[in-house]
Amino acid sequence: MKYQDEYRDPIAAEKLLQAIRALATHPWTIMEVCGGQTHTIVKYGLDELLPAGIELVHGPGCPVCVTPLELIDKAIAIATQPDVIFCSFGDMLRVPGSRSDLLAVKAAGGDVRIIYSPLDCLKIATQNPERAVVFFAVGFETTAPANAMAVWQARQRGITNFSVLVSHVLVPPAMRALLASPTNRVQGFLGAGHVCAVVGFEEYEPLAKEFRVPIVVTGFEPLDLLEGIYRCVAMLEAGRIGVDNQYARVVRREGNSAARQLIEQVFAVTDRQWRGIGLIPKSGYRLTAEYEQFDAEKRFAVQNMQVIESDRCISGLVLQGVKKPHQCPAFGRECTPLHPLGATMVSSEGACAAHFQYGRYRDTMLQAPIHA
Amino acid sequence: MCLGIPGKVVETYDQDGLRMGKVDFGGVRKQVCLEHTATILPGQYVIVHVGFALHVIDEQEAMQIFSFLAKMNELSELGEVSTLPPHTPHDLQPLEPAKFPLAS
Predict the structure, then answer these.
(1) Which residues of chain A lie closer than 8 angstroms to B61, CB-CB?
(2) For A222-270, what is each residue's pLDDT tens digit?
(3) What is the pTM (predicted TM-score) of this model?
(4) Sign of the dihedral through C-alpha B87, A203, A150, A102
(5) What distance lies between CA A209 and its chain's CA centroid?
(6) For B66-81, what is each residue's pLDDT tens digit?
(7) Are A1 and B6 within 8 A, CB to CB?
(8) Residue pair B64/B82 in contact by the 8 Å Cβ criterion
């Protein structure tokens, strides 16, 4: 496949690794923000191929992982109602809520449907006018144009039996929260490439300047990650701060203006809870006043959710890059993709899922053998 | 959530007032909303996420990494150690050098 295969060339990858080895004279700690990038790194073992001093820390760029427990419980409560058709992206279905998950609701007879595109929900709504179609609108800025389009179209076409449960989160405020933390060790960032394809990277410039870090907007294929790491190390070695763009074939500084305009019409910035991290001010989206009528939280008035988080799950520490998955006592034991304790083991972008899927549980076995 | 796949636009049309397209992903064709890449033409490539085209793929920029690698080849053929001068990003915002102490 063009624009994919050539970015997986092992010979080119080795050349980039050689260049990184020759360039690095100090140890550096770099965070890749996006879960998709984490998966590529773990899948291709890039973190193990880098010179010993370069440490890659996994970031919180997994919107499934950071959706608040309370919202999962609300989703389950709504999906359980008899006249509701609950639509969601696939990997939200197995995220553990306080007592259950959406897949269990489906198994018990609830009408829970996996959709590929948010526009699919509108099709379902028009085909089922007597039912209430609810869409779990989860995502970072990458998914915002698609989610916004579904709401915008619903209004345009008068599709009133449609509403959205919004769980949108934004990258720059999360990076700011991490950088401002007294325990932060991250010295440079690989910025989320597809987020920036949509919203551009102007917002990262003041962040880089304020916290004096290099931020390299990076793609998702092995060569992208390696080139991003190379550029980040180059900036760190030279003591340069600012924003660089490795993913220039898709990312422009101003992003996609048509997408941004639509987002601004439908969504407004708001404070958000991040599962495992806590409240980050101005770090999410809610519907604007004009589109409030489509807010599922208002339509279904689910209140007083009593949330119960697993006390064994350290997802929050993994999302902040403070712990690696294999440092969790439950990793590969009570917590596996088949029976996850937390969202980072469920999501296709979760760090724990990546480590498990690509065999890193061997690290756990070596460190602390289970006594029979 | 951030997973975007590159695909080739094969056909464009309008549906429900939106610009749509048939996009080919290595033989698999899917319907994609092109509303945010409205000037795209068949034959061009886009990055697709949840059924939406996020952005056109710039062919020239896509070659950049390969010319960088070719330069590395030339240097290593000349017997130079692969210590390339740090890549000068063309859209780096010029800022004053960092004053933080380098990690030891």
Answers:
(1) 248-249
(2) 999 999 999 999 999 999 999 999 999 999 999 999 999 999 999 999 9
(3) 0.89
(4) positive
(5) 24
(6) 888 888 888 777 765 4
(7) yes
(8) no
